[in-house]
Specification:
This protein has about 140 residues and is mainly alpha-helical. The protein is about 80% helix and about 0% strand. The longest helix has about 30 residues, at about 5-35. It starts with a helix and ends in a 9-residue tail after the last helix.
Length: about 140
Amino acid sequence: MISRERFNELARFAVTGAVCASLNVLISILLTEYLGLHYLVSLTICSCAVIVTGFFLNRSWTFRKSGPEIVAEFGRYSLATSVNMVVGICACALLVEELHLPYAYAIAIVAIAFAPMTYVVHRVWTFGLSWIQSR
């Protein structure tokens, strides 16, 4: 059974993910539709910008971490998120180019599909919390 505390953490992670995914979609659409950038270039630019937002929301609100290990945590977060971003961009390209989905839908689908793995990686590796440990 999942504890109330873990459920609340998962809910905060979902909200943070929704905020970051929404920013990704919004910024990607603005860069693509209004500046004329290719959607993969737009997605790369906005993903890099959203890394900082996601890190601070996840660190302070989702996982409620504090302390001096912020630089190491940001390094791990950036690495995990960058790998996620590269795989996500490839998945978006597949969905758009091969399945002919609109790029905004592809971005949302990939974000939702990657969420469970991303939660575990950030909880355990990025922020060094035990899987069974509650905050």
